[in-house]
Amino acid sequence: xxxxxxxxxxxxxxxxxxxxxxxxxxxxxxxxxxxxxxxxxxxxxxxxxxxxxxxxxxxxxxxxxxxxxxxxxxxxxxxxxxxxxxxxxxxxxxxxxxxxxxxxxxxxxxxxxxxxxxxxxxxxxxxxxxxxxxxxxxxxxxxxxxxxxxxxxxxxxxxxxxxxxxxxxxxxxxxxxxxxxxxxxxxxxxxxxxxxxxxxxxxxxxxxxxxxxxxxxxxxxxxxxxxxxxxxxxxxxxxxxxxxxxxxxxxxxxxxxxxxxxxxxxxxxxxxxxxxxxxxxxxxxxxxxxxxxxxxxxxxxxxxxxxxxxxxxxxxxxxxxxxxxxxxxxxxxxxxxxxxxxxxxxxxxxxxxxx
Length: 355
Prior knowledge:
Layout (H helix, E strand, L loop, with lengths): L1 H15 L1 H7 L19 E5 L10 E3 L2 E4 L6 H7 L4 H7 L13 E4 L2 E3 L7 E5 L4 E6 L8 E8 L2 E2 L8 E10 L3 E2 L2 H11 L5 E2 L11 E5 L5 E3 L10 E3 L3 E2 L2 H7 L8 E5 L3 E6 L2 E6 L10 H12 L7 H10 L5 E2 L30
Parallel strand pairs: 6-17, 9-15, 14-16
Antiparallel strand pairs: 1-8, 2-5, 3-4, 6-7, 7-8, 10-13, 10-17, 11-12, 13-14, 18-19, 19-20
Helix pairs in contact: 1-8, 3-4
């Protein structure tokens, strides 16, 4: 009983400062002051060893800070930083997402634990509302892969994006939207009218300018005509991307690429010998006991003996979506992975990972 009270006290103390601690160590200077927001380029990372990443580098990126400008909302900031609305809200509790006070310094949660799996192809983590693409590239070397990640919008609670495996079966520019019967019925109930088809390029077409068809029946990855729905549950189950993201993703994803929609509200990763945990809300109510799930994930990863129980419990309680060090001993600042620059052929410039 005494030990349990001590543990609870430690959890409360750790949780109070957890979000600040997770990113203050990794923070970079605020984005440069500009009269107008300029959208950041999507960053690519090299990671080690596809298929056997466990035990190597499974955390990418670094958190940063940003000073809110007058008139900005979290929707504006999220799009400029290539984040989902959900990510900014979770990482900045207590800050009004619609009227954040100008001058407030917020966390940009641009650090991610890679979802566990084979580390190949497309992986979409549903609770996180984020897509990962492990890019096949002969220039990356046999022991490395490139990974790029994008925020997405997913299905509403009554039109859930499903778990499952698939392959990319086709790609279409300016796709027409052939409205399914179930959605027609909803439109008739809510709007009193509906169409059978909305042509490509029409402002009312929710697919945007690009669609990636999947072998998973009735589901696709596509753009959007509602740019502020990324990081929200707003679709009828399909995966929505920012227009800028789908425009860059469309030409690089290959037909036949394998993929999976996974459900991992708790992720565990390794960086420089440290154990980091990233926790997200259980948006579809699939895993109602996050503490039990966290213990299971830690056990399956084989790192239980390195994990501080109080730090882990605090990370689960806060659910900030930020990778948080739950190891026993404090550790110096980790070295960030270098972003990749590309040549005119789309290949990564030197230095390359060792072959």
